[in-house]
Structure formats: structure tokens, C-alpha cells
Write a structure and sequence with these properties.
The protein is mostly helical. Helix content is 68%, strand content 0%.
């Protein structure tokens, strides 16, 4: 992920753990669950907007990762492989469900599902106005086709590089850049219209 100075160290540690698992020490897999379950749940929740379904998807991701651990390619980050599994399972099992994505910026890192909370210091009228605006912004994001939503979430929320997104979604880097450019252009155009509406 961009700007993560400990990425190489963690990747090496992941590789060591995975080698132990492949050698028959299945208890080592618990370390990977502890390390990445929060990240995978957070991604699942952003896609599904439902705690129970996000928990189910998270469990399925780690079950699938354990079952196919021999197929993991150590040339890539284990976290990247997990995110790809998450998206593939989501497409397979929840492709008929409407995708809802929250704001593009990072939410606070805590154990609760990310929710947009109105500023309590604002007056009642201001809080209502902020709530309405937030919903309209989310509705704009939801207008994007699924392929563009995936790129937006991974780039702005996941902080993944073009190359990592290409690996996760199994598409060329050029396609990632093209989709991101078009998605940002669409969001900017719609957002400008909202600003005019709010004046």
C-alpha cells in the first residue's frame, strides 16, 4: 500500500507464517486471521452495508484462503490476495445486491462499522443539512458502474497503488488508470452540480 514503510517486513513475516502452514502447522493460520480480519471485515462492510453479511463474507474469505493457501503467490502481498478473494466472493455471492459505498476518505479506525455521523457541535438545522448532503454524495458514488466503484474504493479507501489494484481486480494497469480517471471525472461533475444546488 502506498506510504507503508513496514510493508516489506510484514510481507516477509506473512511468507514465513504461510510456509509453516504449508508444512502442516495449521495453528499458524490464526496469526493471519488476527492480522487481517479487521481489514477484510471493513472492506466487506463497505460493500454490503450489513454487519451480519459482512461477517459471513469475512469468514468465507479466510476459509477460502486457508483451503487454497498452496495457490498463494508469494511475489504479491498476502493482503492483496485476500482482497482479491473478497471481491471475487462478493461478485459470486452478492452480485444481485445493490452496492453501497460510503465516503471516499478514511473512516476512523475503530471496531465499529464505519458510519457517517453528523457533527454534534452543529445546530439541528445544520446537522440535517449535512446528513442530506452526505446521502446525496453517496448516491452519486452509487451511480458508478461496479467496475468503477471497485477502483474508487481500492484507490481512495484502500490506498492501493495502480499495480496492486490491477493485481486484485486482474486487469491491466492501463485499465485501472483509465477507470479511475473516468470515475473521478464523473464524481467531480456530479459534485459540482450538487454544490450549485446547495447554494
Amino acid at each position: 500500500m502506498r506510504g507503508n514503510s513496514s510493508a516489506v517486513l510484514m510481507q516477509n513475516n506473512d511468507t514465513e507464517v504461510i510456509e509453516k502452514i504449508k508444512s502442516g502447522d495449521n495453528s499458524e493460520f490464526e496469526k493471519l486471521i488476527t492480522r487481517y480480519s479487521r481489514m477484510i471485515f471493513s472492506l466487506s462492510y463497505r460493500l454490503l452495508r450489513n454487519v451480519e453479511e459482512a461477517n459471513d463474507l469475512t469468514q468465507e474469505v479466510f476459509f477460502r484462503a486457508y483451503r487454497f493457501i498452496d495457490k498463494y503467490n508469494p511475489e504479491f502481498k498476502f493482503s492483496t490476495w485476500l482482497v482479491r478473494i473478497t471481491y471475487n466472493l462478493y461478485k459470486d455471492r452478492f452480485k444481485t445486491k445493490q452496492v453501497q459505498i460510503i465516503q471516499l476518505t478514511h473512516a476512523d479506525d475503530d471496531d465499529r462499522p464505519e458510519e457517517q455521523i453528523a457533527d454534534k457541535s452543529a445546530g439541528p438545522d445544520e446537522r440535517v443539512e449535512k446528513s442530506l448532503k452526505s446521502k446525496e454524495i453517496v448516491s452519486i458514488i452509487n451511480m458508478l458502474p461496479g467496475n468503477y466503484k471497485s477502483v474508487i474504493v481500492l484507490y481512495f479507501w484502500g490506498d492501493y497503488s495502480y499495480e496492486e489494484i490491477a493485481e486484485i481486480l486482474e486487469i491491466p494497469v492501463g485499465t485501472v488508470k483509465s477507470r479511475l480517471k473516468r470515475a473521478k471525472g464523473f464524481l467531480l461533475e456530479k459534485y459540482v452540480r450538487l454544490l450549485e444546488k446547495w447554494k
